[in-house]
Amino acid sequence: QVQLVESGGGLVQAGGSLRLSCAASGRTFSSYAMGWFHQVPGKDREFVAAISSSAYRTDYADSVKGRFTLSRDNAKNTVYLQMNSLKPEDTAVYYCAASLTYTSSRVNPAYWGQGTQVTVSS
User: Fold this and answer.
1) Which of 17, 15, 12, 9 is nearest to 39 (CA)?
2) Per-residue pLDDT tens for 5-17?
3) By the 8 A CB rule, do 61 and 48 touch?
4) Most exposed residue of 23, 44, 60, 90, measured as fewest CB within 10 angstroms of its CB?
5) Would you say 61 and 53 are in contact if contact means Cβ atoms under 8 Å apart?
6) What burial letters (b/e) apply to 45-76, b meaning 16+ CB within 10 Å?
7) What is the pLDDT at residue 97?
């Protein structure tokens, strides 16, 4: 299995940037596809971005495409979500996720981090 710990959340003004990190434990990080989801109170978790184990493929929700960039450093067991041009609607708890297949990383991850709060003020 893999254990995930997110960091980098905080309060920023609209138009600002944040860089979220997800540190993974274990020796098999490079085998996992990774994803980011976010959730607001009363709503289901929503897909934000995913990256394949080799970083060959990336996908983004339409709402963040062009603003967010997902990358990974397998040597450091870490994935990053660079969030630019943040909007108040981006306010949510952001969760890192890991899956054994790229498809499941987007819709049904096997493992989740604890989440990190991102708040964008207007």
Assistant:
1) 9
2) 999 999 999 999 9
3) yes
4) 44
5) no
6) bebbbbbbbebeeebbbeebeeebbbebeeee
7) 96
